Amino acid sequence: MSPRYRISGCVALAVVGALLPLEAAHAELPASVRAMIEEAIERGDEDTVRTVIDLARATNPDEGDEIDAILAGYENDLAAANAAQALAEQQAIREAGLFDNWSGRGELGAFAASGNAENTGVTASIQLTREGIDWRHKVNARADFQSTEGVTTREQYFAAYEPNLKLGERLFLYALAQYERDRFQGFSARYAVSGGLGYQIFDNDAVTLSAKAGPAYRITQFVDGGSEDALAALVGLDFDWRITERLTLTQDTDAVAEAGGSATAIVDGSNTSLNLVTGLNAKISDNLSARLSYAYEYDSNPPAGAQSTDTLSRITIIYDF
């Protein structure tokens, strides 16, 4: 073969060799694969989109750059949509009326009591929560009542309102106004106001735990017509443990220790009230749960004729709304 033909052959091979990678570089994602990704994006489920893209990457390794570009575009659109939704939700909260955005639960059931009263009866309660951007409002009310042969043997009422101001992701300020009535514990009315700091210690899918503490002022009106008022310190604890998807353990604690701010408290000594409520919630449906709870109530310095400790076991049905 002459040198001229050898040179021409080399040139031809070089041109073909240059064109082959150029053709590979311009290879496109198969239309069926692209359609599959677009269908997943159209359905709007993020997990499905990422699964389909991972499959496309595994079956088309040479088109990784194109797949990455599709994923980047999807993530940008998703971030923009989430930001727009968050902005719309914040705007809706800011424009909400006084009675909007409340959620809560109603509870109805039976109880068995020991201590100052040995009986069984009915119990009912309601809890309301309103979540805002900077504020959270909580309203709790409960009633336990029994009448035997026309004679009331247990009558206990409780109501509380607690607004929280969020100072950060975990820290918050709280205020509390509380009312109690229990003639069998020796008081016809007991009022307490408090304010202080709270902290969300844990807040995840399995466990939530928050604590609060601050000064308080309490007024007690006794069934014999007397009354006393005292400065106090309040400590609260709220714990929820979601053991399984349908089973939750709850522990709520409120302790009020009076500092003897009034003459009566100084003479009679300090009085500490402790309220422990442990509950086990079993979800029946999305909105309905069964609850078994045990309450322990303690007053270190009860009125004459009253015991310092009461216990209360409840079996209730809860409806979330």
Distance between the termini: 92 Å
From the helix content, strand content and strand pairing, which structural class follows?
alpha+beta
> What is the strand arrangement across the widest sheet?
1-2-3-4-5-6-7-8-9-10-11-12
β-strand percent reads over 45%
Helix content: 25-40%
Secondary structure tally: strands: 12
Helices and strands, in order, run as HHHHEEEEEEEEEHEEE
Low-confidence stretches: 2-26, 260-269
Number of helices: 5
Give the overall silhouette: elongated
Output mean pLDDT.
Answer: 81
**Rounded to an integer, what's the Rg over CA atoms?**
33 Å
Characterize the largest beta sheet: strand count, sense, and whether it forms a barrel.
12 strands, antiparallel, barrel
